[in-house]
Amino acid sequence: MAMTDFSFLNLSEPQDIGGLSFSLGPRDDNTQSDSRLIPNVEVSMPDDSEQDQQQTRRSSWASEDGTKQDVLETSHKTAAEEVHSRLWYEAYNPSKTSTTSYKMYRRGSQCFQPRSHAQAIDEYYDEGESNPAQRIMMPDPQPPSLDASGDHEYCDDCETFGPNRSYCNVCTFSMCEYCWKRQLTHKNNASQNDIPHEKTPRSLARKTQAVFNPNIDEDERQKLHCEDVLTSWFGVHREDSARPLLRDYGRFEGLMASTRQLAEENHSYLDPSARYPSFVSFVGQTGAGKSSLIKLIIDLGAKTPALFDTPVVGAVGNTSPTSTDVHLYVDPPTADSDHPILYADCEGLEGGEREPVAAKAIKQRAKKAIPGVSDHSFHHVSERDLIWADKSWRKTREFAVRELYPRLLYTFSDVIVFVLKNPKVIESVLVKLVEWAAAALEGSSNQPVLPHAIIALNASENATSTELWDVDIATTTLMKEMSQTVFQNETLKKYVQFWHKRDKIIRTVEDLILSYYTSIKVVRIPTTGRPNLIAKQINDLTANIRSACQVSGRRKGDLRMLLNAEDMQPYLQYAFDHFSKSIESPFDFVQASFAHSPIPDDFGGNILKLAVQLMEAWKDRAGPRPIFEELAVVVASCIMLDATRHGILGESSYMTYCGDYESQFTFDAFREHFRNEVYVALHELLCNLPRNHLCADSPEINAATDQHKNKVLKPFFAHALEGNDTYDFSSHTVCFCCLFDFPEHTLPCGHVICTGCLKAYGHVTKEHTVEFWECPMDGKILGYTPFYLKPPHCGVRILTLDGTGGIIALGLVSKGWSVDDCTRKFENLCHKAFQERMMARGPFLGRLIRTYYHSLYGTAAIEGALKEAFTESADLFGAKPTSSGIYGIKVAVTATAVSSSVVLSNYNRISGTSLPYHFERPEKGCAELRLWEAARATSAAPLYFTPFNHAGSKQTYYDGGVHHNNPVKIADSERKLIWPDLKEPDVIISVGTGHNLTKLEKRKAAPFKPTATRGIIAQGAFLANMAKDHIAVSLDSEQTWKDFLASSKKSDDRFRYVRLNTSFPTDPPLLDDLSMLSELREMAKKQFAGQYQTNMLALKLVATSFYFQPDETDPLKRKEVTGYIRCRFADDDPRISALGTFIFEKTGIANEAYFLISE
């Protein structure tokens, strides 16, 4: 039965094919049809034909009891089913026609012609009639399946759909089980060109073919390269003769954020602080197949391949380099786990100065698609001048690939996969493997763990001996064959001598490799033709990669150098900074860790922080011994001071502190000496305390404080600054006055001290005011400086603002704006910030522009407006006290960094454990955010504004509303850490951005839907998911408030926890709908003005402006408690006058105000 391509049939007219006629039109009720097929198709059968007699015989198996059925009925039914099956197949496979049945495929000397299912049944019965005995033993053939959905596939032999079809990698046909067994080549397990006929899942065959023989033209390949640019991690950008730039494209933090979102959509909880990524770098010569291997790993490992980006493989026969720079991809099975594996695809070695195919494609398309784009690189998040590129040969592409990329990748990789395509040049590859590692190892010091090495022998011959496909055997064989190369190859001999000078004996090439790598494995990947073997070897490769990553992770954990995703980002940025300045000087992991300050916030860690700063101030003038001898007296004095503050008596108790510190210290050579120095100094200081007490006639705490400042701190810092008086001894994580508490108060000189030291070295005039005159560290006169502290009996009032309320909060507290000022300045800022990019609103081109720039609106406009509003130099943390009376109020905003939420604050507090967010507090002030930068970070709404890249902290921030649009839970958590003794706050007020009340109860969680595309569209979809729908966000904020109230037993006082949120009759306006600002303001006023809830809240705020302070008599010894009613505001605070006016207006002249005190 022949049939032309279905796409060319004219179904409006009756058609006659193989004796069957059918037409598209109104169907007669008596006509047989299948609703699963094409609707309104009428199939009619001829009354009489020889074919009917054959069909009668073919259909006899349909009767279970063996009785014969009506000849004409069964003939029509079977024939109709076969026509329907063919129609279905042709409709969904327009490129295939029934002429396939007549193609001849040669397998050696045999000819094979696929047969129809009807022919198979004819032969079956003919064989049974000629041999009845054999007929009885033969199983009945199964009827053809008409269901082409699910796992059902087409059999190219009998031309029917059904389950359990097997694809033959040699015949390139899919066959059912019956047809497969009929072929002699399959029965005899024959081979052709050393490739056996193997049953292969059709999906596997498609995936491997898409890698090795992709059926795409040059235009499609160019488009794929343009989409793949979004996977760029970092690279060198060159423009004319200018100095090259090292650019970071933000791929790492983007992957961490998107994979966390993927985990949430899959209902997997991931602690942001407990995600530890591993890097696997694929390196090798140009054309070795690095991109092909990564694509195979991802496509074969992904349940939903469309979710994951893959590299673009090079065209067959093209010798030009394919990819450019370094791209980053995620391993699908580990993407949503707490240990994601990331694959780095490095530009090929020995590619020369030829421009890669990807670079050409991107350059051509970018200039056409995006107006104003002059270069071919994707929009970067940061860039650095390559200072060392001062010669023309240092500016070349080859130099960057050979010298820069290895240092960066080797420094952070857990596994290095060196891909080789020609095993005959394995010696040169081993040389490259050693050279590549040696160049990188010379560029780093204190590297915690050496990476593992895997040699991937790509495109190995299918005729390779079976045992060599085993990884262990392949490794042993290759290392044995190349064992003596170290004494024959001139380059390797140099490295052998290098290690010999360092008292390490190298006997084999494996010994040499293991000097640069933790382990070495060899994995063979076959060439095309055997998909099953390819899949097996890829599985072996990924298994070895994951095993090596686990070993590396455990080792780093033992050394306390296992970095989570948040900590990894600053390390990467420091490495970019370092290698952009010099590729000769080593990158020191310990120095990088000091800059990021993962040092524990305990007494031992605090001493180490002071030792690091003393080392930096003295530079090369002193070694470890004099540094710790200098520190011994300071440590002893700090122990003495803390002991007197807490009433700890006796030398043995003091030495307990010193002992606890010792266990944190790692310089074993100085341990005993340091202990003795501290003990001697502490003993002398304790002996001086009674004499000071008698002479000064003061309590012991005052004597210890005076001795610590005048006898220890001033001499120490004076000596420390000799020869380097410009060095700033300051820390934002430890008070250098006592080494015990965290710093909170910034002195005019720039030093930051804790509250205990503020009270000890200042003059407490009232319960909440401290006057300061002199710096206790260097003795500088500061002049009169007042500090406001929260009285111990005063409650806490908390205000949280949804959405962009972070900007308003910063204005209210840090700038002292009034509510009216905030309203006016915020509206002015909005009009200046929302400056739309040219052509960014278009349907397709606009989408491309928004994805290219990560935003709809320009960056310069919003940053300029924020600098104008908050001033460019104002600090968020470390701001000096002012006379405005606003000092002492704590403010924090939320942002999103890498894959978790972060809190950016103007205060310090004790460290919390198991928090769903990260409290950002760097060690040095240079890494702190300015006030305008905090506002920029908290308002970087995805798709609206670009993420904010902060140079000081090396972090990239998105809008905090991505994870916490309503920050009430974070605010309450911070309140408990700052004031752990307070059970409940006086009041918590949560202000929303508005919501559609009618939709609040109707909303349901949307099911997870995989992204349908990759590349630039997938990136845009990810950003859109981060931005979320503004309606859903508003509803989420309301649900967050309900969850917060239900999470624990709150006070029965309904006005202690208040939520104010404007309700709309329709959906809330869009984030950038500036035309609605005035209307929203009036709507909120109308909704809340004069309401009972609003009036009661106002009275609650007035009442909580006062607190009760009991007298110092122990209340347990008395039946009644006496004390004072005090106001929380300072005497010179302008709010005092406003408070009095409000109380007077509410009570009137005739009514006297009174206080009701209750527990």
From TrEMBL:
Report if keyword Transcription regulation is assigned. no
PANTHER family attached here? CALCIUM-INDEPENDENT PHOSPHOLIPASE A2-GAMMA (PTHR24185:SF1)
Q: What is this protein called?
A: RING-type domain-containing protein
Segments carrying the region annotation (Disordered) are 12-70
Task: Locate the compositionally biased regions of type Polar residues.
Answer: 52-62
Sequence ranges assigned to domain RING-type in this UniProt record: 735-778
**Gene Ontology cellular component terms for the protein in this record:** membrane
UniProt source species: Aureobasidium pullulans EXF-150
Task: Print the keywords alphabetically.
Answer: Hydrolase, Lipid degradation, Lipid metabolism, Metal-binding, Zinc, Zinc-finger
Single GO MF annotation: zinc ion binding
Q: Name one Pfam family in it.
A: Patatin
Q: Name one GO biological process term.
A: glycerolipid metabolic process
